[in-house]
Amino acid sequence: MIEDDYDKTIIPLPNVTIKILAKFIEYCKHHLEVPKVEDKTAKEDLKTFDVEFVKVDQSTLFNLMLVWIFLNIYVYIN
């Protein structure tokens, strides 16, 4: 549930660099913009994006996972 003053709320993200936060936001935007209909092309594009997205160094992937865990966001990959 989101309160009326959500834009004034600060969510601390300790030890998160701007690079990691930008990559996290990129991932969220990409998944948000995917059509909700049963479009096989969109699903395949999303799978391709996910595969390419995780092709980063181990440190970056670890830090991304920490952001997901800290914000209590779960990613299910099919």
TrEMBL record:
Residues covered by the SKP1 component POZ domain? 1-32
- Which positions, given as ranges, span the membrane? 60-77
Q: Which domain of life is it from?
A: Eukaryota
User: What InterPro entries does this protein's entry cite?
Assistant: SKP1 (IPR016897), SKP1-like (IPR001232), SKP1-like_dim_sf (IPR036296), SKP1/BTB/POZ_sf (IPR011333), Skp1_comp_POZ (IPR016073)
Could you list this entry's UniProt keywords, alphabetically sorted: Membrane, Transmembrane, Transmembrane helix, Ubl conjugation pathway
The pathway it acts in is: Protein modification; protein ubiquitination
Q: Name one GO biological process term.
A: jasmonic acid mediated signaling pathway
Q: Which family does it belong to?
A: Belongs to the SKP1 family.
Listed name of the protein: SKP1 component POZ domain-containing protein
